[in-house]
């Protein structure tokens, strides 16, 4: 099918469409990872965004579902230079095109992703519209311009769990209450491997409801959109700080900052990929990390709330981790659960928080 991708700055590119016909809108973002497209497409943090891969060939090892980070594709649509039609892997069950079709989502191939990536780096992440089954460039651009900006969208409500659920651990192991803002499956798996008792709760859970669960620690997960939309999770941090250990990952890092009284801001085009270097000030080591975020913590505001920046991105100096000076509160901006890789920080983060609580 014909397809057209229109961007709010007036750019429009025509390519080959696949998946669901019709119009889909979202913020166009790019990821630099070579592999891990299954994990990225099913990461709830991509809700509200049209995901474009900078690597020119996507889908060469197919799709099998074992690496999915949620129940299905959460990105609004997929943009690639080339979608591999015949994957080669013994575990492959379907091609990337067949996967997008089975998820009733839309995609476009055959476009100049390098040009679109350079444009995004220069102008910042922009609203976009993908129309599958049409090559009307003017319509695509108009649809993009009419779409709400991501800071106005409540995306967390689309991906959080509807009801609380529990996972039993080992005997008298610590009890973690996990606030699900769009949690990736491997975060749960990383905690399960360490034997902790888990209670996963929706994003709308109130501070007193968390207290009633008698947690030894609270973990605030990753998720999509502007952290200022997560008002209940922010209140949990502000009201429970000093009474229980609090940890955060990705969006959870930003929520903890807001809950302590620090500030966040929107990055120009964000960090998305599996090759982001992060320097840990405590050890002096640089770790290569997997990331997916469009917002960041304001470094200057952290010191004013009795906290410190513990880790920074080597590329641009943005905050990658914060720690409180005297309360047991710690968080990271990257994804230590390592799906997709690399594996540098999975044990470092999860072993550390479980050890701290014990």
From TrEMBL:
It catalyses: L-glutamine + H2O = L-glutamate + NH4(+); hydrogencarbonate + L-glutamine + 2 ATP + H2O = carbamoyl phosphate + L-glutamate + 2 ADP + phosphate + 2 H(+). Pathway: Amino-acid biosynthesis; L-arginine biosynthesis; carbamoyl phosphate from bicarbonate: step 1/1; Pyrimidine metabolism; UMP biosynthesis via de novo pathway; (S)-dihydroorotate from bicarbonate: step 1/3. The keyword Repressor does not apply. CDD domains: GATase1_CPSase. InterPro entries: Anth_synth/Amidotransfase, CarbamoylP_synth_ssu, CarbamoylP_synth_ssu_N, CarbP_synth_ssu_N_sf, Class_I_gatase-like, CPSase_GATase1, GATASE. The keyword Amino-acid biosynthesis applies. GO terms for biological process: 'de novo' pyrimidine nucleobase biosynthetic process; 'de novo' UMP biosynthetic process; glutamine metabolic process; L-arginine biosynthetic process. L-glutamine binds at residues 45, 223, 225, 251, 254, 292, 294-295. It comes from the Archaea. GO terms for molecular function: ATP binding; carbamoyl-phosphate synthase (glutamine-hydrolyzing) activity. Residues 1-131 form the Carbamoyl-phosphate synthase small subunit N-terminal domain. Keywords: Amino-acid biosynthesis, Arginine biosynthesis, ATP-binding, Glutamine amidotransferase, Ligase, Nucleotide-binding, Pyrimidine biosynthesis. Residues 1-174 are annotated as: CPSase. It holds the Pfam family GATase. The active site is at 250 (nucleophile), 335, 337. Transmembrane segments: none annotated. Small subunit of the glutamine-dependent carbamoyl phosphate synthetase (CPSase). CPSase catalyzes the formation of carbamoyl phosphate from the ammonia moiety of glutamine, carbonate, and phosphate donated by ATP, constituting the first step of 2 biosynthetic pathways, one leading to arginine and/or urea and the other to pyrimidine nucleotides. The small subunit (glutamine amidotransferase) binds and cleaves glutamine to supply the large subunit with the substrate ammonia. Belongs to the CarA family. HAMAP family: CPSase_S_chain. Composed of two chains; the small (or glutamine) chain promotes the hydrolysis of glutamine to ammonia, which is used by the large (or ammonia) chain to synthesize carbamoyl phosphate. Tetramer of heterodimers (alpha,beta)4. This is Carbamoyl phosphate synthase small chain. It comes from Candidatus Argoarchaeum ethanivorans.
